[in-house]
């Protein structure tokens, strides 16, 4: 059995479904099972939250491995890991960020510190460092529906965005394969695109013209804050937007194909699957 956290989000839900489709039993750690949708009927549910480390420990009893997505600022990561260690010490697949490899980024420093806590725990762990998610473009859906506009703080800077489904596929391999314990895997998509190119792809899929309109980094921060993202996190995200704008986000890896045997999805392929969410 495999324990999945964050199953109502972009990565955990795909992991749970991929494991189930391959015939593996799945237990989901959830604060609000009502957010699991159709997945709720296919998995075992363990109620709890990261603010109660013992609830995570109890959920991990009997698990071979745990997918742990705490975000950059968990309430008490050492206590969460200690709770896992006392309940059978399952392997951990920890979701970090590709920014953790560069100390100039606030979010990278936060997640790098979390990675160090994971390694210091003594649990056998695989760390995943994905680049920006293709699913982040779903934040454009409201302005596309209202005004056929995407507000762009990255100019013509290109980056190798990755589909959540591909992050999940690597996570599944790491959950199933103990030989990947101890590795830090940097994950990217297989193509470099900028926002205007992504908008052009969406225009074609939606059958109508969508425009890319440049905005400042500060405007992007305020837009994130308006959606409920804490300002400190928003400014951390803005650092990565600025890096892409300035041409510093172009590095690609071959890790997805090396681990899964399949090339990562293109943005066109991912967007075609999710086009209804933009319409």
From TrEMBL:
Organism: Dyella marensis
Family annotation (PANTHER family): PRESTALK A DIFFERENTIATION PROTEIN A, PTHR43162
Protein name: Uncharacterized conserved protein YbjT, contains NAD(P)-binding and DUF2867 domains
Domain NAD(P)-binding: 6-178
One Pfam family here: NAD_binding_10
């Amino acid at each position: 059995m495999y324990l999945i956290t964050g199953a109502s989000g972009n990565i955990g839900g795909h992991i749970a479904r991929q494991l189930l489709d391959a015939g593996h039993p799945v237990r989901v750690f959830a604060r609000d099972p009502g957010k699991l949708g159709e997945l709720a009927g296919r998995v075992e549910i363990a109620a709890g939250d990261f603010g109660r480390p013992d609830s995570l420990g109890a959920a991990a009893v009997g698990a071979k491995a745990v997918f742990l997505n705490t975000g950059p600022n968990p309430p008490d990561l050492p206590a969460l890991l200690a709770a896992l260690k006392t309940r059978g010490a399952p392997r951990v697949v920890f979701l970090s960020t590709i920014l953790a490899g560069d100390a100039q980024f606030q979010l990278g420093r936060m997640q790098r510190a979390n990675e160090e806590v994971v390694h210091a725990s003594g649990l056998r762990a695989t760390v995943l460092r994905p680049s920006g998610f293709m699913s982040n473009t779903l934040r454009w859906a409201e302005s596309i529906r209202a005004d056929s506009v995407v507000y762009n703080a990255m100019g013509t800077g290109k980056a190798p965005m990755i589909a959540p489904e591909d992050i999940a596929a690597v996570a599944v391999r790491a959950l199933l394969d103990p030989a990947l314990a101890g590795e830090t895997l940097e994950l990217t998509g297989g193509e470099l695109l900028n926002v205007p190119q992504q908008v052009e792809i969406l225009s074609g899929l939606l059958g109508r013209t969508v425009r890319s309109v440049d905005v400042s980094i500060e405007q992007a921060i305020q837009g994130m804050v308006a959606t409920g993202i804490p300002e400190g996190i928003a400014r951390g995200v803005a650092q990565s937007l600025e890096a892409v704008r300035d041409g510093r986000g172009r590095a690609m890896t071959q890790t997805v194909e090396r681990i899964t045997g399949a090339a990562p999805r293109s943005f066109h392929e991912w967007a075609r699957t999710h086009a209804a969410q933009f319409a």
